[in-house]
Amino acid sequence: MRFLFGRDRDLFSSDSSTTPDDTPGPEHRDFVAALATGLDIIRAFDQHTPRMTLSEVAAKNGINRAKARRFLLTLHALGYVRKTDRYFELAPRTLDLGYAYLSANGYQDVIRQHLEHVTEVTGESSSMGTLDGDDVIYVARSAAPHRLMTVALALGSRLPAVATSMGRVLLATLTPEALETRLAPIELVAHTGNTITDRDRLREVIAVVRSAGYCIVDQELESGLRSLAVPVHAGNGRLLGALNVSTNAARVPRERLEAEFLPLLRETADQIGRAVN
Length: 277
What we know:
Layout: H1 33-44, E1 51-53, H2 54-61, H3 65-78, E2 81-84, E3 87-90, H4 95-104, H5 108-122, E4 125-132, E5 135-142, E6 158-160, H6 165-171, H7 176-183, H8 199-212, E7 215-218, E8 225-233, E9 239-248, H9 254-275
Antiparallel strand pairs: 1-3, 2-3, 4-5, 4-9, 5-6, 7-8, 8-9
Helix pairs in contact: 2-3, 5-9
């Protein structure tokens, strides 16, 4: 799992030489390389490397040990990193960064209540996510008592957009040009025998999702996992994210997802959209 960092383009003031559609690259005079490196170091800690030595952090971020040491000690002093013997790990304070995003966007309370209602009605886990790069980031979640995935999901978790129902719903909202730009560098990995790894076939599926307004992914990310997702728009039309429900394929047939769960998700998406403007 990687932690959530929203990319808020409103950070750039109107009198800056950088416009909302002209995000600065590493060579831009407004780009703060030290800040970028600090965030990269935080993001380097994930489910595969939750604890790392100084040398491991340096190697994973492509920097020397001295630079890694300065950043880690600064993060430690600020409370975002803990140090035990030779090992560094993220401290709970890093969650504040994700919660700041949720709070700033009016998500936290409203969406949690709606997701809990979906879980109560269906008996299944429900989540909301947004698109960030190649991934879907979980920004809200209501977990059912039974666990479906081998990986525990929480706020800030990331999953590959191309293999998830929320990801495909969000990809379907992009223009054809933006979609091609997004898909071009992505490696299509076969997570299961059902995973779509043909790029043309993936484009066709996303086109169907765009037309239908919802997406079902059937055991493409994990065997036994079937999920349904719909987009969520604010009252002014702004895309807020995607809403999904995840089920056990052996317990919930596709027909039931479409007949019972889809109307509930669409109604819930409308309610969230009216509440979050």
